[in-house]
Amino acid sequence: MSLVMATIKRDLLLAGRNPGEWLNPLMFFLMVVAMFPLAVDPDPEFLSRIAGGVIWVGALLATLLSLDALYKADVEDGTLEQWLASGESLYMLALAKALVHWLCSGLPLTLMAPVLGLMMALPDDAYIGMLLSLAVGTPILSLLGSVGAALTAGVRSGGLLLSLLILPMYVPVLIFAASAVYHAGLGMAYNGQIGFLGAMLALSVCLTPFASAAALKLNLSR
Amino acid sequence: MANRYTDNSVSLSASELYCERDDRVLFERLNLTVKNGDLLQLAGPNGAGKTTLLRLLVGLNRDFDGDLLWHGEPLTQVFADYASQRLYLGHLAALKRALTPLENLRWLVSPWMSTESASVITDDDLWQALEDVELGGYEETPCNQLSAGQQRRVGLSRLAIVPAPLWILDEPFTALDVAGVAWLEARIQQHVARNGAVIITSHHALQNIPSLKRLDLGELALGGGLL
After folding, report:
1. Cβ of B46: how many Cβ atoms within 10 Å?
2. Could you tell me the pTM of the whole model?
3. Is the ipTM of this complex over 0.90?
4. Is B91 on the interface with A (CB under 8 A)?
5. Interface touch A18/B98, C-beta < 8 Å
6. Which long-range contacts (CB under 8 A, 24 or more apart) does A186-195 make?
7. Contact (CB<8Å) A220/B60
C-alpha cells in the first residue's frame, strides 16, 4: 500500500515539475471551444444550443491528448518493472495512476468549463448540469483511457492506436453527458443521464483496473 | 549489526528450468540454489540469457518450464513475502529525471516503508544513504543534471537501506567509476559476510569473496549445470 501512496505522491510531484504536460491539453480545450463561436454562427441562441456538445467534445479530445503519456515513461524508465517486482497489487496501482491522471486533466477541465460556458452562451440553468456531468464523466474518461494507455505503452507511436481503441468506448459517455447538459439548458430533468453516468463510473472504477493491470503485465512479459 | 540478516533466511531454488526465446533454447535442465552467504554470478557471452534468467528469478517473467521455489514453496504463491525479502536492481534505474535523488529514493524504498517488522526508514537514512554513494550535496539536484554514473549511484544507494537479505543485481557496475566499482565490491562483500545473498550478472571479475559461485550460461547450452 505504501508503494501506491508513494506513486501518487511522486506522480503529483512530477506533474508539478513538468506543468507543460498537463497544461497543454487544457490549452487545447480552451482553444477548441474559443474558436467555435468564430467559425460558426455567433448568434447566442444558436451557440447556447450546441454549447454542451462542443464543451464535451473538447473535454474528451483534450483527455485523449493527455492519455498517451500516462504509462509510456513508466515502461521506458523501469518504474513498471519495479512495480511488478514489488509484488504490490497492480490493480491498486492502475487505479492510482487513473486517479492522478484525473486530478491533472479531468479536474482542471471541470473547473475551467464554466468560463468556457460563458464564451458559448450556455443557458444559466445548464451550469450545474454541465459541472455535474463533467465531474462524473471525466473520471470515466480517465479510467477507460488508462486501459488503452496501458495497452499501447510499449508501442513507439501508439497515439493513433490509442485513439482508435478508446474513442468507441468514449461514445456512450459523450452521448449521455452532452444530453444531460442539453436537457439542463431546456430546464428539463437530467438526473437520468447523470445517474447513468454514475453507473458507468462505478463499473469502470471496479473493472478497468483489472484490464489495465493485465495490459501492463503484457508489456513486461517479453 | 554483523548478524543483520540471520533471521531473514534465504532459500531460493530452481529445478529443471527450461526457457526458450525465438525458438532458441536459452537453458534447459538448469538447477541452482541460493542460500544465506551465497554469491552467485551469472556469466556468459552477450545474448546467453543472463538477464532472462535473472528476470525469471525476480519473478518478472513467468514464461518458463520448471520449478522456482522460495523456502520450498512455488514463487508465485509466496510472492509478496519473497518480494519483501529481495531487492531487485534492474538494467533500468526507474529514476524520474525531473525529480531529485532524494525524491526518487523515497519512491524506490517505499515498498519497505510500512513493513513493521523492519526498522522504519527515516528521511535521515535516505540522506545518509545518498552520502554513502558520494551524492552528498546533490540530494536536491534534479536527476537530469546528474551524470550517468551519478544516476546509477542513486539506484545503488538502496543497497544501504533496504532490509532485504537477497539482492538481485543486473549489471550493477555499468557506468561506475573506479571508486564506485570499489565501493560496490566492498558493499557486496560486506553483504555476503553478513549472511546476505547476492545474485548478480556482470562481466566484472569479482574478487575476495570465497563463497563466489559462477554459473556460465554459455557453457550451460552445451549441457553443463550447477550443483
Report:
1. 8
2. 0.89
3. no
4. yes
5. yes
6. A186/A123, A186/A125, A187/A125, A190/A129, A190/A133, A193/A133, A194/A129, A194/A132, A194/A133, A194/A136
7. yes
Q: Name the residue among A58, A67, A61, A53 with its Cα closest to residue A175.
A: A53
B123 touches chain A (CB under 8 A): no
Contact A10 B60 (CB under 8 A): no
Output the CA–CA distances (angstroms, integers) from residue A16 to A19, A21, B44, in the order listed: 6, 10, 44
Q: Which residue of A has its CA nearest to B164?
A: A86
Region for B14 from its dihedrals, namely left if φ exceeds 0, alpha if ψ lies in -120 to 50, beta otherwise: beta
DSSP 8-class letter at B93: -
Instruction: State whether CATH 3.40.50.300 applies to domain B11-220.
Output: yes
On whether the CB atoms of residues A180 and A116 are closer than 8 A, the answer is: no
Residue A134 grid coordinates: 463533467
Helix (H) or strand (E) holding B179: helix B178-193
Helix (H, G, I), strand (E, B) or coil at B199: strand
Q: What one-letter code names the amino acid at A4?
A: V
Percent with pLDDT over 90 in chain A: 76
With both helix axes pointing from N to C terminus, report the angle between A107-119 and A126-152 in degrees, rounded to the nearest 10.
130
Q: Residue B151: which of B89, B76, B207, B219 has the closest Cα? A: B89
Residue A14 belongs to domain spanning: 2-220
- Tell me the per-residue pLDDT of A58-78, one tens digit each, with 9 for 90 and over: 999 999 999 988 998 898 888
Quick one: cell of A206?
471496479
Q: Give A37-61 as a DSSP string.
A: HHHS---HHHHHHHHHHHHHHHHHH
**Number of domains into which chain A is organized:** 1
CB B113 within 8 A of CB A10: no
Taking contacts as CB-CB distances below 8 angstroms, the residues of chain B near A73 are 96
